[in-house]
Amino acid sequence: MDPDWPLSRDLVLVGGGHTHALVLRRWGMKPLPGARLTLIEPGACATYTGMLPGLVAGHYALRDIQIDLVRLARFAGARIIFDKATGLDREARLVHLAGRPPVRYDLASFDIGATAALSGIEGFDEFAHSVKPMGPFASAWQAFVEGRQARRSPARCTVIGGGVAGVELALAMAHRLRAAGLPDSKVVLIEAGCSILAATHAGTRRRLIAACNRLGIEILTATRIVRLRSGSAELSDGRELAADFIVSAAGARAHDWIARTGLSHTDGFINVRADLRSVDDANVFAVGDCAHLTHAPRPKAGVFAVREAPVLLHNLRASLSGASLMEYHPQADYLKLISMGDKSAIGHKHLFALSGRRVWSLKDHIDRTFMARLNDLPVMRAPEPPAERALDEVGGAPQDRLCGGCGAKVGRSSLNAALKDIAPAQRDDTVRGRGDDSAVLRTGGQLQVFTTDHLRAFIEDPYLMGRITAVHALGDIWAMGALPQSALLSLIIPRMSEAMQAATVGEVTAAVSDVLRDTGADLVGGHTSMGRELTVGLSVTGLLEGAAIGLDGARPGDVLVLTKPIGSGVILAGDMRGAARGDEVRQALEIMQRPLTAASRILAPAAHAMTDVTGFGLAGHLMSILEASGAAAEVSLSAVPMMPGAEWLAGQGVRSSIWLSNSSLDGRITRPASAASDLLYDPQTAGGLLAALPEALVPGVLDQLAAAGETGWVIGTVTEGTPAIRVT
Description:
This protein has 20 helices and 37 strands. The strands form nine sheets. The protein has a seven-stranded mixed beta sheet with strand order 32-35-31-36-33-37-34, sandwiched between helices. A six-stranded mixed beta sheet has the order 25-26-27-30-28-29. The two termini are about 45 Å apart.
């Protein structure tokens, strides 16, 4: 997204299917100025259909078959919303979501695939899996096999659906169970029709049935499952099967909510024209398995989704810019490559069929090449530095791209130097001021806490930035043991159309208000302005029921307890560089959104000193406590919780913008040289609370945290001495 060109159109991609993944990659190579791109997808990764049987058979690891949608979205300059679409308001142009307010669109494109769920079977949702969506199924299968291996217990697996997908899946499962050392396991394939593979080429059908016989797969036809219980399946002919793992591959079924959008559909699949637009609505596109090509009906197959991508990209850009659209005309037939469990496959097209290991090698090459296109993204070169420029602190070397969140903060030493020149408070009602997390003011007989904070956006999603900023700003209130009271919003948004302005401001205010109201506080107003990028700030007040908890009460012998893992700075920096894994970025964002209400209420009555861990990193904020308290500390590095992926990124040399400034404490910190200890200087956004507690109270506090669904980690102790930290 070009920050110097005003935004005027919202393009929303609903679903992270293969077509949309390819569109994201190509969009990243050539974005359309003025268009804001959004991807809505529940997961951080999409599972590639073509390699799923290989995963089930054990030939691939889960990571091998996943498309990292977070990295793709970052590459494309798109925001990614981790949620599921549940409806469409075509008049207001809103996509309704399961877990947050609706998202506006000027153009919406759907690539949400299909499902194989059979909710009409009693007990299906509780005891069975659908092969679509593939991500949850793949994870469930991996866990099931590992569990059986650990117990050395034979498995009884059932596959519903005797088409190519069901047979391919049954072959892969049977091979995997044998390879896992579970030879007494059994795979049963159930087909409601009179025969399996009824629509398949005769030669291919013979080869696949022979492969099923070799692997001992039992084939049951002209029957269906009517009821599922834990460990068993009841058939329509009265028989009962032992079934530990049940999966449906019984054809593609449309998502129920599509039929309620008012769009024309065929069996729930959106009817589209040759230009991939809905036959009813020129602002809605659909591709992949969720679409029905009215001009050229085709079976549900990934090859069509892949070949729709360049046409969809062209038509989306054309619709946004006023150009002419093009048509998609699918081929009449295509090369079908079907895995046979082991590393052999069948390939057939027209009347010709081949099978064997060479066909598998061809399929493997095609699949890996496709995945490389989406995961091995081009490195976007940094702008060349000017030939003539002022010298800087590192000898004229160009600076890395500035981080967002707390990675963009001013360093601890610079801030402390500025604050020490502030005159002491002249008002009697200013109880605490300079040097603490928040100001403490006396209003009548009530003590009020006041603080302010803001974050430069590190993700493209205004709603998520609003939630994280609210949690971050409230951290100072919670750290002093106060109850949040009210907040004013300060918002800078990029230049955009009035409709987009209204939607963006609405998303931020809704997010901030939701967080505040959950804590018992109110958003009471705010101010906005336009700038080059999104920045969200809050001024927050809180009320104290007793004395404020400051930085200056820690005593030798106190135990240090931390309530959130560290590593958000390096993960956000890695995300910005395209080096972080999408699932790890998503986990970090979820941790940042977690409020500290319960943790504060439990820690505050016991804490001698407390702070929230933010821009100065764990080391810097602990040092602030030690300086105010006149004490030292010992920290056990192995006890410090770290976000998944953070230590690996630190080991690759990824650092946040403020890391170097934070590490200026090295002269007062004794630590081992390692990537893990580097994370002690990592700036945290919406980090956890760090409390110094009397040792005798720690077990009870940890029990209370656990009972409230919170976690507390004991990371060290306060010791006697001049302010310094010894890391073991």
